[in-house]
Amino acid sequence: MSIRFSFGGDEHIFGEVSEDMSLESFFTSLSMTNAVRDARIRGVTEICPANASFQVKFDPDRIRPADLMRELQSMESAASKSDASLQTRIIEIPVLYNDPWTHETLMRFRERHQDPTKTDLEYAADVNGLGTVENFIEAHSSQPWFVSMVGFVAGLPFLYQMVERDKQLQVPKYLRPRTDTPKLTVGHGGCFSCIYSVRGAGGYQMFGVTPMPIYDPAQKVSYLQDEMCLFRPGDIVKWKPVTRDQYDAAIEAVDANRFEPVIRPASFSLSDYNKDMAGTKARLMEALNGR
Amino acid sequence: MAVKIITPGLSTTVQDLGRPGYYHLGIPLSGGMDRFALRAANMLVGNDEGAAVLEAVFMGPELEFTAPATVAITGANLPPKLNGEELATWEAFPVKAGDRLSFGFLKSGARAYIAVSGGIDVPVTLGSRSTYTLGALGGHEGRALKAGDELQTGQGAGGKGSIPENLRRQPGNPAELRMLPGLYWHRITADAGKQFFADTWKVAPEADRIGYRFRGGTALDFVPREQPFGAGSNPSNIVDACYPYGSIQVPGGTEPIVLHRDAVSGGGYMMLGCVISADMDLIGQLQPHSPARFTEVSMDQALAARHDAEAALSRLRAHLGR
After folding, report:
1. Residue A137 — φ and ψ, nearest 5°?
2. Which of A15, A226, B84, B276 could form a disulfide with B302 if both were Cys (CB 3.0 to 4.6 A apart)?
3. CB–CB of B260/A196 below 8 Å?
4. Are residue A278 and residue A157 in the same domain, yes or no?
5. Virtual CA dihedral for A203, A204, A206, A210, nearest 10 degrees?
6. A153 vs B264: CB contact, 8 Å cut-off?
7. How far from chain centre, in Å, is Cα A207?
């Protein structure tokens, strides 16, 4: 695997680890960005890992673009050989699938959708050959997901499903992006799920909403007082389908600032995962459920 | 001293030189879209160049001052009126307690910078006073100003002087936006690349602090490929990646969008390259429907342009004795 480097104007270097998505590419991106951070290169101002690529922003008044390019290229072989393992967290996210708010929103934007006669969930079930919305929700929520990027808007996680590639859920993005998406919508586009941290434009299919805040610029939510964004690349997520009553109870707890998210420490090794996917996931679920 | 917002204009926000360091979380730089004009406004009123000012787009606010101060308006030609009497832009003027500042109709440009001696003193969030409205972060309560808001200002000695036209920087007609091809440029055909530079584009109505959309040019032809796993089915789709500031994405291959100070930090559309840092300010002064062309430059030319932009700032400082 060889990283394709490109300048992004006179202030960015962009590195594409691979055109397609894989956890191998994510880990190479993460070790490259960790190496750049540790090297404390003069003039580097932002270091952003992404799913299968990364970006470094720099001040060309302080370091010559060609010099930084050479320095990044020299880190490549070490990064691709580094041990792909993490001390991380597994986080349970309650989801009210098929909720009234995303339903109301998606009905307003049917003309931008591939199949205006179906809801986003019906369409996703259909294109993945799963027959029913219930089957799709089961496929979406039964397996853990890996946070392979944070961004788009503040604190939004991109999530990659931890199953064999041929079992991964894939759904095209809307034909034209919507101008509105409810806050905390659970969406999906390409092979990635996401949680919209703020209300706004979006092109991912909408499946449900979580009551659990993931971004708090006021830093008042009990678990977002130190960091206003919950997610970091490498976090692992397990969706938990909830009923409307459970959703309402969670919202009440959030409003009273007594909502306690389920977040447990976990470790992850890519080579263990590749050797024994089922066993690795079982251990992650044990870490989450304390058994 | 305070500034009372009598009417807010179309979208007036508190901005400084921005909030670097959080792009990896999806929190963009923010700050004035026309940083040159923002710095100039601050210089005129005797502030640090990076003090917080008001950025007004297309339509000015009406403000009332509670104490004497120095004020200057730069950027767009949005004619200021003090108690109804028209004043010049790019020139410092004194205000007294109870004075009202309003604005006439926009004559050219898009964004005016209103600097007040002492700077706008909203709380510093993640190192900056800039407003990031999409994330409800910074500025005054994380949002554009509303009637009835009251903003405190810092202590400032004030300043004086004016900036003649030859020291200002404004986009031409059509605006020339220099860009360095790269990123996913290889995804389009050579002919499509030539046509992209040959076309004259027009700023679309969807043009804001996040990005400027352009239309009226030719749709791109892509080099055929089997779409990589996870990218999505449209040829303009990529596996969601980081978006540089100034990057030119083309969803569906039809309408280029240049990301600006409140950029979304990443997403799944291919990018043709970036508008160079020296020309980002110009975009902030483009009105919807105004024509623009993209011009190809090399890295050396981009760095020379950056050097020229810095030299223009130095001339400004020298002119104002700073």
Report:
1. -60, -40
2. B276
3. no
4. yes
5. -110
6. yes
7. 15
Residue B180 Rama label (left phi>0; alpha psi -120 to 50; beta): beta
Q: Is residue A61 located within the same domain as residue A141?
A: no
pLDDT tens-digit series, residues A98-146: 999 999 999 999 999 999 999 999 999 999 999 999 999 999 999 999 9
- Of the CATH numbers 1.20.120.550, 1.10.1740.10, 3.40.50.2300, 2.40.100.10, which one belongs to the domain with range B175-310? 2.40.100.10
Q: From residue B96, give the alpha-carbon distance in Å to each of A258, B7, B52, B69, B239.
A: 49, 19, 21, 7, 56
| pLDDT of A232 higher than 90 | yes
Q: Is A244 on the interface with B (CB under 8 A)?
A: no
Q: Which of B160, B74, B167 is nearest to B117 (CA)?
A: B160
Q: Residue A22's domain spans which residues?
A: 4-82
Low-confidence ranges of chain B (pLDDT < 70): none
Decide: B147 and B7 in contact? Cβ < 8 Å.
yes
- Going by their DSSP bridges, the two strands B201-207 and B211-215 should be labelled as antiparallel
A111: contact with B, CB 8 A cutoff: no
Tokens of A25: 């590419």
CB B221 within 8 A of CB B194: no
Which of A30, A53, A82 is at the close of a domain? A82
What torsion, rounded to 10 degrees, do the Cα atoms B309, B310, B311, B312 define?
50
- Give B226's DSSP letter: P
Residue given tokens 């969601």 in the structure block: B240
One domain, residues A20 and A104: no
- Which CATH number belongs to the domain containing residue A51 in this structure? 3.30.1360.40
CA distance B178 to A26: 33
Number of domains in chain A: 2
Q: What number of CA atoms fall less than 13 Å from residue B56's CA on the CB side?
A: 30
For A143-156, what is the mean pLDDT?
96
Intervals of CATH 2.40.100.10 along chain B: 175-310
Which string of DSSP letters, residue by residue, matches B271-285? EEEEE-GGGHHHHTT
Cα–Cα distance, B66 to B52 (Å, whole number):
18
| % of chain B at pLDDT higher than 90 | 96
- Listed by number, the residues of chain A in 147-206 with a beta carbon closer than 8 Å to a beta carbon of chain B are 149-156, 158, 160, 165, 170, 172-173, 176-177, 189-192, 197-198, 200, 203
Nearest-10 crossing angle of helices A23-39, A65-74: 120
Q: Which of A1, A7, A47, A204 to mutate to test the interface with B (most CBs of B within 10 A)?
A: A7
Q: Are B55 and B38 in contact (CB under 8 A)?
A: yes
| Best mutation target, B22, B24, B236, to test chain A (most A CBs within 10 A) | B24
Q: A200 and A145: one domain?
A: yes
Neighbour order of strands in the sheet with B2-7: B85-86, B80-82, B100-103, B62-65, B2-7, B150-152
pLDDT above 70 as % of chain A: 99
ipTM over 0.90: yes
